Amino acid sequence: MSQETVFADWKEREASAEAMIPVIGRLSRERGVETSVFGKIVVNRSVINILKAHRFARQIEGEELSPQDTYPILEIMDKLDLGRAHIDVGKMAVKYKKEGGGASLEEFVKAELADAIRQGEEPAPTDVVLYGFGRIGRLLARLLIEKTGGGQNLRLRAIVVRGQGGDLEKRASLLRRDSVHGSFLGTITVDEEDNTITANGNVIKVIYADAPDTIDYTAYGISNAVVIDNTGKWRDADGLALHLRANGVARVLLTAPGKGVKNIVMGVNNGDVTDEDTILSAASCTTNAITPVLKAVNDQFGVKNGHVETVHAYTNDQNLIDNYHKGDRRGRSAALNMVLTETGAAKAVAKALPEMEGKLTGNAIRVPTPNVSMAILNLNLEKETTKEELNTFLRDTALHSNLQKQIDYSNSPEAVSTDFVGSRAAGVVDGLATIVNGDSCVLYVWYDNEFGYSCQVVRLLQQITGSTLKAFPIEG
Predict the structure, then answer these.
(1) CATH superfamily of 285-450
(2) pLDDT in tens, 45-59
(3) Which sequence spans correspond to the domains of the chain?
(4) Spatial distance between the Cα atoms of 417 and 142, rounded to a whole number of angstroms
(5) Largest CB tally within 10 Å, which of 79, 145, 283, 330?
């Protein structure tokens, strides 16, 4: 094609993407519809972000999807009385091409989304409290604020921090700017007198307290709340139960491996959660990254045994320069050294996936990067396979299975760690790095140990509050 033809095509795609933005926003604000293109969220995204989400389809379908394919679907959706739902217009467009069966696009979309039509009044939102406001706490705040606009029935009502006050602007500034994850997408204002941070219209009370059981949340209009403890200070059932003694708290969710409580990895053992579970753990970032991949591989090929080596970004637990640390080697400068350390993630897999009990060993190397880690899974399988077969299975799992929110897939020959900052998947399989030799394989799994893990925590929160969005089109 000539340069003029290529550029004209680009401008047409831009125009369609621009036209999509107000429709996507309206569906989100007014009806609680979360729109995506092959798993890439496009709510509150720019024209370029929307175009890149469509281009991602090349990895799946072999050809690029165009906004001209998906915009007509959005126009039809906009005329329907939809309720809260997650609708992937990219998958809808491809499904129509493959399975339309002579029906018009309007007939097809109406049939596919019949179960997404609004059914009466939506339930009241659930109050959420963040206990702690560190790396994970602030990312959870961003995610919860983002999802409030989508009508997902979660309301971040309060943040609990230590101290006596007077530091509200500094805490708001850390939410507003992040050296790894970039600027907050929206506006933030601070009311020092009322101790509130208002982010994108969400008024969030900042409560200063030194112990969970000393707070009366009902005094702030908060009731039946889920408290997300991201301090890591209390990790057993007795310690976490302190939160339940506070007025206004119904459940507690820990963002670390828990002792004496259920450790839940979404997509794997979240079916074990019951209404009686008032205290739950979301396990660790590494456990969340590797367990879904292990489950998929074990279900398809069987895993006899293996070793997990984690190449992990340094964390706040380490020292910037050499200083005393109670842990072996962790006292040495995180910014200057690779630090060999232990990880309990391999053993912790069995808490979510009992069939892996005793089959895995593990170790970790902390490296001088601030975010994004990699797990290397060296596995002995029960069935022989090939690199092509294993990668095809994992790619299909990432796109069309119950684990599609947990597992993503990359086939870029130039991908490096920073390319996975902001990934919403628990782990991303690097297909080009896969090694297979008969009944043994080595898998390389990238994961944003901050943001990807926070997304898993929110998914668990959505489940226990009954606010998980039903996904369309329905696959399988």
Answers:
(1) Dihydrodipicolinate Reductase; domain 2 (3.30.360.10)
(2) 999 999 999 987 776
(3) 3-116, 126-256, 285-450
(4) 22
(5) 283
Regions in the chain scoring below 50 on pLDDT: 150-151
- 313-370 tens-digit pLDDT: 999 989 999 999 998 999 999 999 999 988 888 889 999 999 999 999 999 999 999 9
Q: Which two tokens stand for residue 246?
A: 């506070």
Question: Cα–Cα distance between 318 and 337 in angstroms, integer?
Answer: 11
Per-residue model confidence (pLDDT) at position 60:
61
Distance CA 88, CA 41 (A): 9
Give the architecture-level CATH label for domain 126-256: 3-Layer(aba) Sandwich (3.40)
